[in-house]
Amino acid sequence: MSKVIVITGASSGIGEASAALLAADGHKLVLGARRQDKLQAVAARVEEAGGQVAYAVTDVRQNAEVAALAQLTLDRFGRIDVWINNAGIMPQAPFMAGTVDEWDSAIDINIKGVIYGINAALPQMVAQKSGQIINVASVEGHHSHVGGGVYSGTKYAVRAISDSLREEMAQLEGHLRCTVISPGAVTTELLESVADDGIKERYEDFYATHGIPADRVATTIKQAIDLPEDTAWNEVVMRPIKQVL
Ligand code: NDP
């Protein structure tokens, strides 16, 4: 069945790969991110492949912009079947570096962006009595390490928020599903958000030997969507097989 699917952070990486795969699967896509040129290019590729797509420049730090993305979806396609809160950044630095601006950005994008997405999609899904919210967390939402405290904190938060959402959905009428996808190292543009050169270099080395392509996560998202409507994967934790933590 063709679904209407919204993806935040659709201009690169996991969001871009998911847009391509889900459109090829016959779903209608609405894409949000900040870089218009990239969004436009992703949308053009979807259209060239015969898919239906809309996009809007959206900064998930702004509740009004996230709400506008939901409204665009309703105006264009009349419903919201799946909302994927994927937009994220991964700043890494020890607390002693005092990178307060990065902490603020990570919290605003990775946590508040997710809550704004839930706020934009849930009322429509409740009215439809069906819908699925997919939140992209991380294996770093399961463990933390020096330099990753704030990023991990945001991803632990995504899992906590999703748990509460899942329980609330279970108490509501209809087929409402919440799924967390927690990947390990995936080769995307994410390392661009690591400002510290030394830490970035270590990550680049690790990703060069361990990283898996973004379409692995896209495939998992597709499988989570394809499950029977009365069943949900509550969380999928997935890693390259050589990744230890
Ligand atoms: P990318 O950097 O390739 O993609 C991140 C996306 O988020 C981009 O499309 C970017 O678009 C968007 N984004 C960033 N800030 C904002 C904002 N303020 N408003 C709207 N969109 C924003 O990395 P990934 O594909 O890897 O990241 C996707 C998700 O996967 C993130 O949540 C990340 O934490 C998670 N993840 C990634 C892992 C990995 O190893 N790659 C591992 C575990 C989790 P734009 O700049 O145009 O706004």
From TrEMBL:
Which Pfam families does this one have?
A: adh_short (PF00106)
Checking InterPro entries in the record gives: NAD(P)-bd_dom_sf, Sc_DH/Rdtase_CS, SDR_fam
- Keyword Transcription present in the record's keywords: the answer is no
Q: Which UniProt keywords apply?
A: Oxidoreductase
Family per similarity comment: Belongs to the short-chain dehydrogenases/reductases (SDR) family.
Name of this chain's protein = NADP-dependent 3-hydroxy acid dehydrogenase YdfG
SUPFAM superfamilies in the record, alphabetically?
NAD(P)-binding Rossmann-fold domains (SSF51735)
Organism of origin is Streptococcus loxodontisalivarius
